[in-house]
Amino acid sequence: MGKLVICDHPLIQHKLTFIRDVRTNTKDFRELVDEVASLMAYEITREVPLESVKVQTPVAEMDGKVLAGRMLGLIPILRAGLGMLDGMLKLIPAAKVGHVGLFRDPETLQPVEYYTKLPTDVTERELIVIDPMLATGGSAIAAIDVLKKRGCTQIKMMNLIAAPEGVKAVQEAHPDVDIYVAALDEKLDDHGYIIPGLGDAGDRLYGTK
Ligand SMILES: O=P(O)(O)OC[C@H]1O[C@H](OP(=O)(O)OP(=O)(O)O)[C@H](O)[C@@H]1O
Ligand SMILES: O=c1cc[nH]c(=O)[nH]1
Ligand SMILES: [Mg+2]
């Protein structure tokens, strides 16, 4: 079973409250999502291995540390996942980006796939799938399915807010995938929206409602 990590750093929790607030306008919403994504990038990379390299400071030579192991890949689920991408790239600029386009059919709540473009070396990378919302889990499961069909094996999931139903569904479908969230909310409503959540992440990011 993949682990569920709740990133409870005070800065993340503080900013998330303003993201949730219905009075937060599109510009502020976008900026706050970007900031929280950077903070979560810090948390999700906590266990990335390091290796020693010699570095000459102005005063002496020493053993410094640099990132080792697999290179990272970021996989935003279009469209709302794009809102978290730049914030992550600020901290992980060497990551390559693959896009998976999915939307959730409002009637059936099933994910509909419309676009995939992945880096050529995607199977050699440790991947982080990013999307603000994990509701029923259908979109996350479908995105991870796309990656596994291409041969990817090292995958983590990162969301701002998850519902217990979505966490359970992803853990059952993909038990090898750890999930990092800023908050685990109460439940889903009859339309598959997270309660209390933040509303429709894509619409709030891009002002489409
Ligand atoms: O866990 P699920 O029940 O699948 O729901 C979550 C999905 O719904 C939202 O996307 P949406 O379908 O609104 O597309 P958008 O990003 O284009 O707005 C959200 O960004 C997730 O991708
Ligand atoms: O609460 C929800 C559920 C799915 N997608 C969203 O954007 N918000
Ligand atoms: Mg949406």
Would you mind describing this structure in some detail?
One of its GO terms (biological process) is uracil salvage. Pathway: Pyrimidine metabolism; UMP biosynthesis via salvage pathway; UMP from uracil: step 1/1. The chain has 209 residues and is α/β, with parallel strands linked by helices. Helix 1 runs antiparallel to helix 2 (26-44). The chain is built from six helices and 13 strands. A hairpin with a 4-residue loop joins strand 2 (50-56) and strand 3 (61-67). It has helices at 10-20, 26-44, 85-91, 138-149, 164-173, 201-206, and strands at residues 4-6, 50-56, 61-67, 72-78, 96-97, 99-104, 111-117, 126-130, 133-134, 155-162, 178-184, 187-188, 194-195. It has a single domain (2-204), classed as Rossmann fold (3-Layer(aba) Sandwich).
Gist of the model:
Helices cover 31% and strands 31% of the residues. It has 209 residues and is an alpha/beta fold.
Give me some keywords for this one.
globular, binds uracil, PRTase_dom, 31% helix, 9-stranded mixed β-sheet, uracil phosphoribosyltransferase activity, binds magnesium ion, GTP binding, Rossmann fold, magnesium ion binding, binds 1-O-pyrophosphono-5-O-phosphono-alpha-D-ribofuranose, nucleotide-binding, 209 residues, two-stranded antiparallel ribbon, alpha/beta
Query: Helix coverage percent of residues?
Result: 25-40%
Terminal CA distance: 37 Å
User: Strand pairing plus helix content: what structural class?
Assistant: alpha/beta
Bound heterogens, unique: 1-O-pyrophosphono-5-O-phosphono-alpha-D-ribofuranose, uracil, magnesium ion
Unreliable spans are none
Radius of gyration: 18 Å
CATH architecture classification name:
3-Layer(aba) Sandwich
Q: Structurally, how many domains make up the residues? A: 1
In the CATH hierarchy, the third-tier topology is known as Rossmann fold
Mean pLDDT: 97
The geometry reads as: globular
Order of helices and strands: EHHEEEHEEEEEHEHEEEH
Number of helices: 6
User: What is the tally of beta strands?
Assistant: 13
Binding site for uracil: 194, 199-201
Catalytic activity: UMP + diphosphate = 5-phospho-alpha-D-ribose 1-diphosphate + uracil
Domain Phosphoribosyltransferase: 7-208
Enzyme class: transferase
